[in-house]
Structures are given as structure tokens and as C-alpha cells.
Design brief:
Length: 311
């Protein structure tokens, strides 16, 4: 099917029996424009966020040459007398609550189907099913109580997980949810701090990259992680991520195994915190001091880490 309207001339798209999915739309636009699919996805996410923000602010959004989105509010109606158009008899028309447009109703149906799909996908695993149920309840409260501007910012996030984290970070969301869980703001700060730690000093490597760098098998990498000579941080089903800062141009950073041995009583996250946080004892980050060859001082600081007054 060729598109010949002004602004779309020259593009050609396949004829499909069904309405295209989001993936199909991304692939079609990518193929037609020659742009990478990932870039097309980012543009669409940005447009969706912009539309959400404008609708929240003004109730309408126009995408020039394509469409105009508008919130249509329908007021509640009382029960009233009417005429059955087929039997031509008087009937009582039932009262109807206030609603938005039909498009809004379709969105609700789609969300309900998505939620049911999530629960169906986990129903054979009780623990995952319980988590999914509680997570959906939390999301519902975020959607109901969060400020529209904050929700629009969350929608613009590149991943679903980042969207949830961004929504949780908003002050209005935290205040609303803190009523049920006073410790939630601290937990959210902890999540963000973990994300920050993983992104520092070159980010993280997966097991395959670490194995290739060290000329080991993945089993060899797992063995070193279990022995504590390599720092791996668990990320659920994705396995483990290995902070890039522990690796040198060849092998691992000189002395890192001794430092990890001194930190053996601490979990992987605390080892990362130690290495990447400023130390009063060293007058530098332990990672920087280790790179400068101050191995004995770093090992001593690691041994004292967590003790009262030690830093």
C-alpha cells in the first residue's frame, strides 16, 4: 500500500489483515525511513510522553498532519423516559455515570487485558503470582494518586522498569504511598543508589564478557564469584553483573582479590559501596587508592570497614 498524501509520498507499507502491533509499527517505520528500530522506538516514546503531558495540561494534543487527541468528558445522566425505536413503546432509560470518551474505555480494556495476562503468566508459581498481584495494586495506586506531570515524565522512560522507578521518585507519589509504608522513600533512594553504583566506572559486564576478558568459561567465572575473588552482583533471572572497575587491561585489578578477601563478611553491594565511596582513612576512594598502588592501606581499610568510627 503506497502512501501518496503530501508528507508521506514515496513510502510503501505492507497490507496486513489485522491492525499492526507496536512491534509491527516500529518495523514498518524503520524499514520505510532507514532509521534504526531503536531510534524509531525512542521517537515514539517521546511523542507518547509529549502527548500525555499536553493532554494532562490542556486536554488536547495535535500531531500535525496526523491526528488530534482530545479528552471527551460525558456527564452523568439520570434515569429518564424514552422510546424503544423498534417497538415504539415507552421505556425507562437507565442512569449512566460520568465517563470519558470511548477511546478511554478501550484503553481501560487493554490495561485490564494486560493485567490479566500478567496474572495468568504467573498463576502456576504461587510466589510470583502473589508478587504480581501486590505489584499491580501498587501500580494502580501510583496511577490514581500521582500528579499527571510526574506520570508523563515516567511514560517517557525508555524501559518499563525505569518508568516505575521514575514514578516512585516523584514527591507526590512518595507522599501518597508513604501513608501505607513510611519506609518507602528510603527504599526508593536505596534503589536509585544501587543503580548509580552499577553505572559508575564503566558500568557492568555480563558473565560472557567477563569470561572472554579473563579467558575463562562461564563456569570458571561463577566459581571465582563463589570464592569471592570476583565481584558479581545478582540481578534475578538475568544472573549476575560484574562491575567493570575490578578488571584491568589484562586480568583483574592488581590486589583486588586481597581487598575482597578482607571484605568477605560483607555482601556484594557493600563491597561495591566500600570501593566506590570516599574513605576518610585513605583520603580517597579505595578504588583510586588501589589503582595508585596503596594495596596494604586499602586492605587495612577494608578490614576495618563497617566498624564504629571506621571510614
Amino acid at each position: 500500500m503506497a502512501i501518496t498524501k503530501e508528507g508521506g509520498k514515496g513510502y510503501s507499507f505492507p497490507r496486513d489483515a489485522h491492525a499492526p502491533t507496536k512491534t509491527a509499527v516500529l518495523n514498518a517505520v524503520s524499514s520505510a525511513t532507514g532509521l534504526p528500530r531503536q531510534h524509531v522506538g525512542k521517537v515514539m516514546n517521546a511523542l507518547a510522553a509529549l502527548a500525555a503531558a499536553e493532554i494532562a495540561r490542556r486536554g488536547t494534543f495535535t500531531l500535525p498532519g496526523m491526528a488530534k487527541l482530545k479528552v471527551v468528558k460525558k456527564g452523568a445522566t439520570r434515569a429518564r423516559q424514552g422510546i424503544n425505536p423498534f417497538a415504539k413503546e415507552a421505556v425507562v432509560l437507565k442512569a449512566k455515570p460520568r465517563t470519558l470518551s470511548k477511546e478511554k474505555g478501550a484503553e481501560v480494556q487493554a490495561l485490564r487485558a494486560e493485567a490479566e495476562g500478567i496474572l495468568e503468566g504467573t498463576r502456576h508459581e504461587p510466589l510470583r503470582s502473589a508478587f504480581a498481584t501486590r505489584a499491580l495494586r501498587g501500580i494502580r495506586r501510583l496511577a490514581e494518586d500521582g500528579a499527571l506531570e510526574a506520570i508523563a515524565e515516567a511514560v517517557a522512560a525508555p524501559t518499563d522498569t525505569e518508568a516505575v522507578v521514575k514514578a516512585l521518585e516523584q514527591p507526590d507519589s512518595l507522599r501518597a504511598l508513604a501513608e501505607a509504608d513510611p519506609l518507602l522513600p528510603a527504599r526508593v533512594r536505596g534503589l536509585r543508589e544501587r543503580e548509580r553504583l552499577l553505572s559508575l566506572e564503566g558500568g557492568t559486564w555480563d558473565a560472557q564478557t567477563a569470561a572472554r576478558h579473563l579467558h575463562l568459561t562461564r563456569q570458571g567465572i561463577n566459581r571465582r564469584r563463589r570464592l569471592g575473588t570476583l565481584l558479581g552482583i545478582g540481578v534475578g533471572r538475568r544472573g549476575y553483573l560484574y562491575p567493570a572497575w575490578q578488571f584491568a587491561r589484562v586480568g583483574t585489578l592488581t590486589g583486588i582479590e586481597q581487598v575482597f578477601a578482607a571484605l568477605a563478611e560483607h555482601d556484594p553491594w557493600m563491597r561495591a559501596v566500600f570501593m566506590l565511596s570516599a574513605s576518610d582513612r585513605l583520603d580517597a576512594r579505595p578504588l583510586d587508592a588501589l589503582r595508585a598502588g596503596r594495596l596494604d592501606e586499602v586492605v587495612a581499610a577494608a578490614g576495618a570497614f563497617g566498624q564504629h568510627g571506621a571510614g
